[in-house]
Design goal:
mainly alpha; Alpha-Beta Plaits; 134 residues; 3 strands
């Protein structure tokens, strides 16, 4: 019964023995550049950020040091001039780029650490000339 069911071919089949193959050709040696480490770039960025933070901190805290080194005395000077003379003196000082204020008949001058000796000398010279001119 099995013989009746099996299929037989009238053509001869090729042999199914293993076929010898040749080895694939070896690729030529190509030297690749090694992968570069990102550590130097990261270290550079960390250094840049740390430097900027340090500079900002130095500038920020130097203001506190300057403020603490200043005496507790006021740096606002008032000179009583009277209302009539006051407006003329304020305008004369303003023409020279010296900013002052008129308050209650007084000339109010605020001097601080950022003013230079030349600023004080220009104030004194201009103020003296404005007061003598009255």
């Amino acid at each position: 019964m099995l013989e009746a069911m099996s299929e037989t071919s009238s053509t001869p089949e090729p042999s199914t023995t293993p076929v010898a193959t040749t080895a694939p050709p070896q690729p030529a040696y190509v030297e690749t550049e090694p992968r570069r480490s990102r550590l130097p770039a990261v270290a550079a960025w960390v250094g840049i950020v740390a430097g900027v933070v340090f500079i900002v901190a130095v500038l920020f805290f130097s203001g506190f040091v300057v403020a603490l080194s200043c005496p507790d005395d006021d740096t606002i000077v008032t000179i009583p001039l009277g209302d009539a003379e006051l407006s003329r003196v304020v305008s004369a000082l303003s023409e020279q780029g010296i900013i002052v204020a008129a308050r209650d008949g007084n000339l109010r001058i605020s001097i601080h650490f950022y003013n230079h000796e030349d600023d004080i000398h220009r104030l004194a010279t201009t103020l003296g000339a404005a007061v003598r001119g009255s």
